[in-house]
Every structure is written in structure tokens, then in C-alpha cells.
Design brief:
Layout (H helix, E strand, L loop, with lengths): L3 H11 L7 E10 L5 E9 L20 E4 L3 E6 L2 E7 L6 H14 L3 E2 L4
Parallel strand pairs: 3-6
Antiparallel strand pairs: 1-2, 3-4, 4-5
Length: about 120
């Protein structure tokens, strides 16, 4: 039976050396618990990040105690202080706005959001 890394390496080789929008960045040898070595391929994405109204990688969801939405903006609070404001005019589509609301509902328990 092949390991996950062996299956991934086989799939990558089967697809001409690249999977999706990425390429193999290198190989790494690792010791297994039984002492044998395993060759692991490292995957590095070559896809360009999509820029939108919100950089999800920079939002520290755990720092927000509450989120509120008005017709003009989203406001995030840390305690009684305003921690972040995101203007709705920065969103390029309704779908992007709906996705952001969904993320807020998952990440901030105390939220007052408008209906979809």
C-alpha cells in the first residue's frame, strides 16, 4: 500500500510534473517511526493570490469580541473599542460580500449582521 506522499508523487508525475497551479519545489528525506526513510515532495504554489476587499490572512479573528454590520460598513470590536472597520464599497461583488458575512458568522460568536 502506498503512503500519502507516494500517491501524491505518483499523481504529480502522472500529470506532467505539476499538479494544479503549482510545481515541485524540492525533495526532503524524512525518517519514519520504523527507521526507514521516506522521500517527500514539497509543493509550492505558483498561483497568484486573489486580491479582494479583505485579506483573510491578515485578519486576527480571535482578537474580535463582536462584529456589527450597517448598510455602509462592517465594524469589529475588541471589548468596547473599535478594532477594525471595513467599508462595504470595497467589495467588488455581492458574492464577495456574502462570503465575508459567512466567515464572520463562523469566526465571531457575537455578531449583528444584516440578512443575506
Amino acid at each position: 500500500m502506498k503512503s500519502g506522499a507516494e500517491r501524491a508523487a505518483g499523481e504529480i508525475a502522472e500529470h506532467g510534473g505539476a499538479a494544479g497551479h503549482g510545481e515541485i519545489a524540492g525533495k526532503d528525506e524524512r525518517k519514519r517511526a520504523d527507521g526507514t526513510e521516506q522521500l517527500v515532495d514539497k509543493f509550492q504554489s505558483t498561483a497568484s493570490p486573489v486580491q479582494g476587499a479583505v485579506d483573510y490572512g491578515e485578519i486576527r479573528w480571535d482578537s474580535f469580541s463582536k462584529a456589527a454590520e450597517t448598510t455602509e460598513q462592517f465594524t469589529f470590536y475588541s471589548g468596547r473599542s473599535v478594532a477594525k472597520v471595513i467599508e462595504k464599497s470595497k467589495f467588488s461583488s455581492r458574492q464577495e460580500l456574502l462570503t465575508f458575512r459567512r466567515m464572520i458568522r463562523r469566526q465571531v460568536a457575537d455578531n449583528e449582521l444584516l440578512h443575506d
